[in-house]
Amino acid sequence: MTAKDLATGREQSIVIKDSTNLPREEIDRMIREAEMFAEQDRKMRELAETRNEADALIYSAEKTLREHGDRISASDKSEVESAINDLREKMKGDDIAAIRAGIERLKEAMFRISEQLYRATAQAGGGEARREATTGGEVIDADYKPAD
To answer: Is the model's pTM score more than 0.90?
Structure first.
């Protein structure tokens, strides 16, 4: 392979050679082993991805508890903390189904908390937002034509 710098006119070349002299039988053996372990590799990847999902959910739940703990009922807060601890225990094992069940339990507990927080925010701030919309700004009356 040759390359030439058009601005300076310098030219360089390189020769690429095979760096391995593996016999065909060795290559075939390596391919067979890769195929044999493909399912095991897939399961390990699925386990790692499930654990990552669980870890992210735990982080999010703990952050929500830290930031809004004073606005969450004690029973719901206790349920989330219990679900977090349960999920952490399940993550120590290799049972993907058990980890997913723990994820679902924590998601359901977090949904109840989120619902409480949104309801409280809507009740506290909903009336204020409507007042601002009706009393603020100048109203402009204009004619318009719909675009074709």
So the answer is: no
